[in-house]
Amino acid sequence: MKIESIRLKNFKVFKNTLMSDIPQLCVIVGANGAGKSTFFDVFCFLKDAYKDNISKALNKRGGFHEVKSRNSDGPIEIEIKFSETSFKPLITYFLSIEEENGTPIIKREKFGHFIDFSRGKGFVVTNEPQREEQTLARPDILAIKGLAQFQKFPVIMKFGSLIENWHFSDFHINSAKQIQENGYAEHLSREGENLSLVTYRLYERDQNIFNEILEKLKQRVPGINSVAAKITEEGRVLLKFKDANFKDPFLAQHVSDGTIKMFAYLVLLYDPSPHPLLCVEEPENKLYPKLLWELAEEFRMYANRGGQVFISTHSPDFLNALELDEIFWLIKNDGYTTLKRARDDEQVAAFMAEGDQMGYLWKQGFFNGVDPQ
């Protein structure tokens, strides 16, 4: 399922914002505090709510009144439209949250015509047009969470699996350099602390993918000619990098930050089971500017394979590798944020048509409203 549009109402700085016709690779630019992390947090919030419940997801963010836009009326609302070959027209997931007597509840939750719940009660479509009435244990539990556990609701089960597999990358280099105890790791984690475990799994089970990652790394990091993950007798997994100029390999702790980060992104983007949604904040940090064009291409390839990608960036070099349709920028006025698409700006679109690059246009101030006032 590809996300086609997102409408946010009363969610932090997004008092009433719509992003539509979203591309497979979507890059967001904005000043500090404009809402880039908040936009990504919408997906994190839904995943947390699916894993636990609305109350816990809100409490993780300071509670209902910290999540709801300040000085706003009405409930928090999230509406996401998805496209999928078997769904014509688009299928919509809608969630409305309000507070009653100091307790957050789900005022309304709808998923297409398959479910419609309010305050813990509603119906689910079994065999169309038959509907089955259901009551949830609590009014702060997502209906899709409970119903996705049953094979009799295959569409809802698929949607639940989609949310479970959304991935958020906030890579911490120091975490990735730590030595790990041996264990199971299917995907690279949010902060990358299991990089050595995922590398070992790739080496053991997907040699072709591992070799492709290694070749990409060798092209981009001078001197590196091999990477290996080894399990010690004590059950620890060591990640080692071999420089062609030296006899002995280096442990990850002694490799440059940029090398570790490029390797981690390659491991993430060449995952044999890519995530349906991947959110990455500021991938340019610690990387040599000339590598960012190639990294942008890697993200685009990942998206073209079916994993939709959302990225935030402050890097003109990264933006220079992007296409007009792929870029949105955030504009913050009077405490609230709106979105503007680059292609909808006539001046930016005209410059791009003449061969200019997006990063240069941003540096020259053509992203109207993006700079803090």
Describe this entry's structure for a reader:
This protein has helices at 36-51, 54-59, 64-67, 143-147, 154-164, 173-176, 195-205, 207-220, 257-269, 292-304, 316-319, 346-353, 358-363; strands at 2-11, 14-19, 25-29, 76-84, 87-100, 103-111, 115-118, 121-125, 131-135, 167-169, 180-181, 224-231, 236-243, 250-251, 277-281, 308-313, 327-333, 336-341. The chain is built from 13 helices and 18 strands. The chain is of the alpha+beta class. The relative contact order is 0.14. A hairpin with a 2-residue loop joins strand 17 (327-333) and strand 18 (336-341). The protein folds into 2 domains: 2-166 and 303-363, Rossmann fold (3-Layer(aba) Sandwich); 168-274, no CATH class. The mean pLDDT is 90.
Characterize the biggest β-sheet: 8 strands, antiparallel
* Strand order across the largest sheet: 2-1-4-5-6-7-8-9
The amount of helix comes to 25-40%
CATH topology of the largest domain: the name is Rossmann fold
DSSP strand tally: 18
Strand portion:
25-35%
CATH class of the largest domain: Alpha Beta
